[in-house]
Design brief:
heterodimer, A: mainly alpha, Rna Polymerase Sigma Factor, Chain: A, 2 domains, B: mainly alpha, rod-shaped
Chain lengths: 190, 365
């Protein structure tokens, strides 16, 4: 049963955990992200009362388990990150997770790309639209996107080229991507 | 071709890539990923704050040391809780299945018990249905109240003569006092009482026979059926009930049959016994068929009774006459007075024991 569950996507596991109250599915989802949770929480361990690993991680899991039943989760990684940050901020009040507009637009674009994957004609149409949106972006963002996605350059290469940090490079890429998604979605609505 | 590749690369900007798994994370940090894999990871890192933060933290050596044991213990903790839950689930599932099975079995046995109960009640009802008419007939035979309806009276009249016949055949040495073939006077208490009591004893045999062979196997059963010994020590103090016009009296019947057999001495009877056997068998068959017809008659199934009486009316002897008489009674009950009159006339013409009754009925019609 566990083996079968591990092959399911995040969406399916969340759905099972919510609709069928399948705690095994919930456990598999938590296990899938446990190493990332551990890593992200490491700087906040043993910093004060109630921050030992034996307390922090079970509490985090409980919090995630509670919010899983009540919240809409389009992306598991964003939801987990939001919950970790909320716990680290030590807010007792459960701050509900809502995906940002940018995030939703990006996700819609991802869904579109996934949808046209089997249709060459639609792929071409979408690629043309994306190219057009790419042209509308500022020169730096356009450069970073082209170098990263079309020329397969790494973060370090890009950062070295512009003498930025990796974080800054990633940030520029993220912003460029969000702008592009926003442009494409607005085009669609117009 | 280059256009296609370009398209694919542009579409890559919004491709959905999963978070770094347990193996990829340290390998990325160590630089042990292939170019393609690394590029995929970095594509994901553009969007995923969780993975990027994790990598940033793990790039610091002090956290890197702590990471591995904590990650494995966290995994074990989650797995243990899943296992516990799955075991609880399994137990719950098993219990649910068992409960289902049990409830199904309970339903099954309840249904089976109801079915058996209903079947039993039905059988008892069926039994009592067949028993009551015969016992009523016997009761009527003993009492013969003045206000009784025709049918029970008639049956009583029919049942008794055979008893006397049997009695005579079984007790050849017993002296028979009455020798006159003429119809006996109404006040002959002794034979009537005896016969009636004997018939009272017999019902189980007769009732069973009627029940079992109500349709076709009448003759077979009758030949096979053992003739139960008759109880003679029954109360004899019951006076004979006054007889009705339409019903042939018990006394008459006792006279009808047994008398011709009575006169010859016992020795002769013994000699003639093997010859008489087939005749006696046919008489007993007729008697049985007559009784069966009577049962139908008493139950109100006139059509069936008529068909049986008709069948019997062809047979020579006393039962032919009696069944003709009963046939006439049935017709009269059905309102077919023409047929009834014809039958009564036939009975009168036969000049048998039922002549007077038939004549009286004819006069009344």
């Amino acid at each position: 049963m566990l083996q079968q569950l591990t092959n399911l996507s995040d969406k399916e596991l969340i759905s099972r955990a919510r609709k069928l109250k399948d705690q095994e599915a919930e456990g598999v989802l938590m296990e899938r992200y446990s190493h990332l949770m551990v890593a992200v929480c490491l700087p906040y361990l043993n910093n004060g009362p109630g921050t030992s690993p034996e307390e922090v991680y079970p509490r985090l899991l409980q919090r995630l388990s509670a919010s899983l039943r009540t919240q809409t989760i389009p992306k598991a990684n964003e939801w987990i990150y939001h919950t970790i940050r909320a716990q680290q901020a030590q807010t007792e009040k459960n701050n509900p997770f809502f995906p940002s507009t940018e995030s939703r637009e990006q996700q819609q674009m991802e869904n579109k790309v996934e949808k046209v994957a089997t249709n060459l004609k639609e792929q071409q149409v979408l690629a043309a639209a994306m190219e057009e949106a790419l042209g509308k972006l500022p020169a730096e963002e356009k450069y970073f996107l082209k170098e990263f996605y079309l020329n397969n350059k790494t973060f370090t290469e890009l950062a070295a080229g512009k003498k930025y940090t990796v974080e800054k490079t990633r940030q520029i890429l993220q912003q460029a991507k969000q702008k592009m998604a926003s442009l494409l979605m607005n085009e669609t609505y117009e | 071709m280059s256009n296609l590749e370009n398209n694919e690369k542009i579409l890559k900007i919004f491709s959905n890539i999963r978070c770094l798994n347990r193996d990829q994370l340290p390998r990325y940090l160590d630089g042990r990923l292939t170019d393609v894999e690394k590029h995929l990871v970095e594509q994901h890192l553009v969007d995923c704050d969780l993975c990027f933060d994790a990598l940033q933290v793990l790039q610091q050596p002090q956290y890197r040391e702590k990471y591995q044991p904590l990650a494995s213990s966290m995994q074990q903790f989650i797995r243990a809780s899943i296992k516990r839950i799955s075991q609880v689930h399994k137990v719950e599932r098993y219990q649910r299945q068992e409960q289902k099975k049990e409830s199904f079995l309970i339903y099954f046995w309840v249904v089976a018990a109801i079915a058996i109960g209903a079947g039993g009640i039905y059988l008892v009802q069926q039994q009592s249905k067949f028993k009551t008419p015969v016992s009523k007939a016997i009761a009527s035979n003993t009492e013969l109240p003045a206000t009784q309806s025709e049918t029970p009276r008639v049956q009583a009249a029919i049942v008794t003569p055979v008893r006397t016949e049997n009695e005579v055949s079984r007790k050849p040495a017993e002296p028979v006092t009455t020798t006159t073939p003429a119809p006996a006077p109404p006040d002959m208490p002794k034979p009537v009482v005896k016969d009636s009591v004997k018939t009272k004893v017999k019902p189980p045999a007769t009732a069973a026979a009627v029940k079992d062979s109500i349709r076709d196997s009448a003759r077979k059963q009758l030949t096979a059926a053992p003739k139960s010994p008759e109880v003679k020590d029954a109360p004899k103090d019951k006076p004979a009930t006054p007889e009705q016009k339409d019903t042939p009296t018990v006394a008459k019947k006792t006279e009808d049959k047994p008398e011709p057999k009575a006169p010859p001495p016992p020795k002769k009877e013994k000699e003639d016994a093997p010859e008489k056997k087939p005749a006696a068998e046919s008489t007993s068959t007729d008697e049985f068929l007559y009784k069966a017809a009577m049962v139908y008659h008493q139950q109100g199934d006139l059509n069936e009774a008529i068909s049986r009486y008709k069948h019997l009316s062809e047979s020579p002897g006393k039962y032919g006459e009696l069944s003709r008489y009963q046939l006439a009674v049935c017709y009269r009950s059905k309102g077919q007075t023409g047929k009834a009159r014809r039958m009564f006339k036939e009975v009168v013409r036969m000049n048998g024991s039922m002549k007077d009754k038939a004549q009286a009925a004819l006069d009344n019609l």
